[in-house]
Structure formats: structure tokens, C-alpha cells
What we know:
Helix content is 45%, strand content 17%.
Amino acid sequence: MAVARATIRDVARVAGVSDGTVSNTLNRPHLVNAETRDRVMRAMAEVGYVPNAAARALRNGRSRTIGLVVLDFGNPFFADVATGAEQAATEAGADLALFDTGLGRHDREDRLLRHLAERRLDGLIITPNDVDHPRFATIEERGTPIVVLGREVPSRRRSSVRSDDTLGGELAARHLLDSGHRHLAFVGWRHDERYQGAGHVTTAGGAHLTWIGVDSDGIGDGLAAGARLTALPAAERPTAVFCANDLIATGVIQAVTRDGLRVPEDLAVVGFDDTDLASAACAVELTSVHQAAAEIGQAAVRLVLEEMSAAGRTPRDVVFEPELVVRESSATRVRQR
């Protein structure tokens, strides 16, 4: 029986709950058990109650908005993640707010998290420096679920969505070993699971892996690494390099070809992410470990939406399996020297 201009009080009376429970069902559904939520929703339909989303947003500072915080939207991988996330959010009738932390700058990340805690988003997806950042607890205490993107969370303290980076490193290294390379280099961060995976394979195969560190993850870092490689005597230089992402790999290729080396004849190069850079924008078509970037973004949004709608869900770790895409930059077998 519909009620003219039904109110929250009318819904509460029909559902047999308090006004506050109806309000929580609308604004903080994770605080209400499933049976009660269903009863409230049926009562809303019975009395013809239509919630005013705009009014709710003004009252509580929320508007069904999910924040997506990544390291750098200048990296095509994160742009592809955002495309998938936006698609999933739109399908669910939610808004997506995009932020980056300037290549993971700790000061910028901390300021941004403080701002987002005050803004009180409905959900947060983030690629953090620390999966247990001190501000996460404050955000979650205010009813905002957090899904970690691209990182494994120990002991499943919160949900995560990621690619299996260790496997990706193994795929890259195994491909290079199978092509005859015995001295490899990795350009990236020593703590990176991609480096750990490559190290496992090279050690097992009796080969050598040299680590070349970077300050961030851009083309400039690849240019610097490439210059270091070409400065080495030929007898000491690795014959293949595995890079932490396609941006770094692109820089390496630019640097070594500028200095007279041939890719892949003198130096085979493998990237990670399989962005458009790999197949279309790189001087030599780049072999790369493919990540399902858009699907990762979609999965992250769907997971945070689940946690927004149901309290007490057990955190989940959603893992995508990478694949190696072989192209020109590593296609030639090495000549032993």
C-alpha cells in the first residue's frame, strides 16, 4: 500500500525497525545485516518511498563515489586500469574519482589519504607504498572499505586485486634462458616480486642476474639504465635485460640503440605490462609480460562494491595470471661470446 510522500518513518513502521536502521540501510548498508536490509527494502517498495540521493549526499558527505588512487596516470598501465574501473563503476551506478601519488611519493600519498579521509568516500581502491598505511585504519573506521591494488596484503587483513608478479618474472626469465642467454639484468626495484621471480629461474638455470636499480618507473629511468649497460665492456655486458615495466624498457631500447647496440642482436629486452607502448609506440616491438589491466580495474571496483554493501565480508585476494607476449625485441637467439 503506497503512502503519499512516504517518509523514512513510514518505512520504519512497516519494516518494524527504527528510523536509524532505515537510514543505515540507505547510507551505510554494511552496518545492517542482510535479513534486515531485505525487510527494509521491501517496506520501501510497499510504501513507495523514493530516497533522495542528492539530499543524502548533502547530509552525510557521500554520493556513492569510489576513489581510485594509483602511482602515476602517466603510466599507460594505470590508465588502462582506470578505464576498466570506470566501466565497472558506471555499470553499477557509481562515480569514480581518480588520484595519483606522483610515482608513489610518501608525502603526497599521506596528504592525499588525509584529504580522502575527510571527504569520506564510499569506497577506496589504492596502490599504496605500505599496504598497512596508518591512515587506512581511520578511513575504515568511518565505514569506507579499502581494496589494495597491485599488492599482496599479508594475512588477508584487507582485500586486494593484483597480477601474479612472481610468475610474470619467472615467465620473462625463462623465455630469455630458453633463447640462450646466460647473463641477464633486471632494471627495477630489488624488492619487486618480478625481480624475485626472475631470480628464482636464473638461479635454478645456473645463469646470472644483475640488478640495476631505478629511482622511479619512467622512460628516463630506462634511459639511465641503458646508458649504464652500454658503458660496460662487451665481455661484461648482459646479453638480455628484463625491465619492471614497459616505460623503463622503452627507455632502455632508446638508449642502447642510440649508442650503437642492436636490439635484439646485441641486447634482448623484455618489458612488463604489455601496454600500447609494447606493440605500437616502441622503436622495436617489445616482448612484454601481459597484465589484464582493464579486467584488474573492473575486478577492484566490483570487489569494493561488494564490501560497501555487506559488512563483515572475509577479505579476498583476487589474482590474475600474466602471460608472455613475444615480439621482436627478444626474438633472436643469442650468439655465445
